[in-house]
Amino acid sequence: MASANAAPIIEIDGISKSFGSFKVLDELSFKVAPREKLALIGPSGSGKTTILRILMTLEGIDSGDILVEGDNLYRMPGNGGLRPADEHHLHKMRTKIGMVFQLFNLFPHKSVIDNVTLAPMLTKGVKRADAERHAMELLDMVGLADKAKAMPAQLSGGQKQRVAIARALALSPKIMLFDEVTSALDPELVEEVLNVLWRLCEETDMTMLLVTHEMGFAHDFADRILFFDRGRIVEEGKPDEIFRHPKQERTQTFLKKIIAAGHRV
User: Ranges for the ABC transporter domain (predicted)?
Assistant: First the structure.
């Protein structure tokens, strides 16, 4: 659960982002509390994934500000004010955040344990023995300790995604971002990945932002739901408020289509 009355761990203040003539985020503002579990839902193209990529510094912003633990993500002190962040500042900020992608992005030529240990060794100077010890703990947590020496090509999609989660956790981030982590999986493999997310919810204090079309899981997982459309937040609230009693017509229409497609909400 989110920490009551604590300073936000993430503050997004009036950010806009365009790709060419398409405005994907339109003066967007919201805050995330420490330990909060936040689900971002809405139609494709509404800006949800872009928010995660911006937080991970994979995309820049056109205007606005983002603070992570009170520090500006894209700007840094200089010349008596703030100037654009340099790579050193971005790297320091990036260590607070982990991200799991839709398509795993594992290194195909490296074993499972090498995929998990590489970043801590390269970015934090962790010794191999310590990195491997931590990696085995994480692989055990995601149920894949027996696959440590396997290559990604030998794994199912669900197993690859669980390795990707372990890899993101290896840097001990305070914030975890999950971008449609089940959408590339066969239906029978979805549950094994969602079970790992449940375990993270129950056993860690991490702040988690989840972009998903798994509405039933979003309902059960999240402290709060944000419904996006056209780069803006149309409606936000507790899961029961959004899924059982949506106030905005756009939210109602979206959820009716989701239910008609056979999804549980």
Answer: 10-255
